[in-house]
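Predicting holo structure, zinc ion bound.
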Amino acid sequence: MKAAVVNEFKKKLEIKDVPMPKAGYGEIVVKIEASGVCHTDLHAAHGDWPVKPKLPLVPGHEGTGTVVEVGENVSHIKVGDRVGIPWLYSACGHCEFCLTGRETLCKDQLNSGYSIDGAYAEYCLANANYVVKIPDNISFIDAAPLFCAGVTTYKALKVSKAKPGDWVAIFGIGGLGHLAVQYAKAMGFNVIAVDILEEKLTLAKELGADLTVNGKETDVSKFIQEKVGGAHASVCVAVSKIAFNQAYSCLRRGGVCVPVGLPPENMEIPIFDTVLNAIQVIGSIVGTRKDLQETLQFAAEGKVKSIIEVRKLEEINEIFEELEHGKVNGRIVVDMSKS
Ligand code: NAD
Ligand code: ZN
Ligand code: ZN
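Done. Tokens:
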């Protein structure tokens, strides 16, 4: 079968023939119809993070498609089911975190397109217990970005503890951020969208953002403090340390900063202000299967919709280039039927 493969960090991906996966115990094989391209795949291909992915690697953790094979001991998923394969390929199921509905914190987790080959391929292996079914009225293409960008931002907004009517600042209106704006509006928040590119701010406005700020041209924190008295919460999905520092300093007293983006840098957290203003900084990593079901439900009800540019798998190196330079509006999704 055809797949896009990272052979070496920071080198171009190779489109090549690789062996078809075979469903083992508790596993399924999914014929991939659509595959979203997340900035995380770029970090993986560059080897950006302290824990490196396997090599060679087939990236991709926003894969959607049809189940074509089920292995032994799989009863709740059948051949023909429409499913998506998220970042959390599997977790142990019995540790402190798994037992308390926090499976994304499991220390024995495997990740699609990182420690296990992912969805930049015609077929992909999945653990039957960790895939989530796609509602009938969402297409494979529309569903793909929800499996990472959607669930991650929906979960981050829950972690932010914001309430309807609160001001929530979203930093970075890319693949994740453009969905964050929509989930935040659907959850009843007032939204401030921050990016450094004007076209991203235009998109945010179209998607319902109440205020937009260009982080390169304006003193963002001052603007937010003066305009609304500081944000109740901020979610930072930008791939830049500067945005994280702004996401902290734009908060009002008692505010919550939720770091989500993963630039290989550190953010600055001043001790004095954090203590005196009782600021909370709470990291957020993807979302659980339950979060994912809720994420999909919003889309099934027409409350959110990914802005998508459809491309071919063969264009993956150009797509990475465009993503790296902020040229993607919304999310790029690879349509496997066109590849
Ligand atoms: P993307 O490239 O589509 O979007 C990034 C956006 O940030 C772009 O619109 C860019 O213009 C903007 N940006 C860059 N510098 C900025 C600045 N200084 N201020 C404001 N905006 C700025 O990327 P994406 O796919 O949305 O992913 C974003 C990040 O989130 C990546 O680091 C990715 O690895 C991470 N991520 C984290 C999780 C998680 O669970 N925590 C899940 C998925 C992705
Ligand atoms: Zn992702
Ligand atoms: Zn566990």
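The first strand starts at residue 2 and ends at 5.
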